[in-house]
TrEMBL record:
Keyword vocabulary terms for this entry: DNA-binding, Transcription, Transcription regulation
Pfam families in the cross-refs: MarR_2 (PF12802)
PANTHER family: TRANSCRIPTIONAL REGULATOR, MARR, TRANSCRIPTIONAL REPRESSOR OF EMRAB OPERON
Organism: Dyadobacter frigoris
HTH marR-type domain span: 7-141
Protein name in UniProt: MarR family transcriptional regulator
Molecular function GO labels: DNA binding; DNA-binding transcription factor activity
Transmembrane parts of this sequence: none
InterPro entries assigned: HTH_MarR-typ (IPR000835), Tscrpt_reg_MarR-type_CS (IPR023187), WH-like_DNA-bd_sf (IPR036388), WH_DNA-bd_sf (IPR036390)
Amino acid sequence: MTHRSDHRAYFFKIDTTIKKIRNALQKQLIDAGFDLTVDQWVLIDHIYREQGISQNGLAELTFKDPPTVTRIIDLLEKKGLVERGLAVGDRRKFNLFLTEKGQTIYNEAFPIVAEIRRKGWGDLDEADYQHFVRIMDSIYSNFS
């Protein structure tokens, strides 16, 4: 017996929607003169919210593998946006911090990100948001 979801390409719809949003954000960042990729922005955003996060913690939080996070952090460090600090009690680990330049870039780029979010949400209301979150959390939990 088949389930009604067997014939619905909902993962394709989720994936294409995410790609559309990422492409729109990337275009806006470029048009505004930011030398940032969406993946770099995602890490900057999380470091801003949790100054001192470890690279492993950042990888877990962003669902990126540790080598990818290391590569992106290396690029952000070369741009002067992020700095690594040795973790207290473990010289093998680094904690991540935004530099002053990184915080400035965050503050300048965030309104662009917020506008993309507003545009994507359009005229949907809070009830729509709660329904959306419930559905996405349910799908997520099904794979946990």
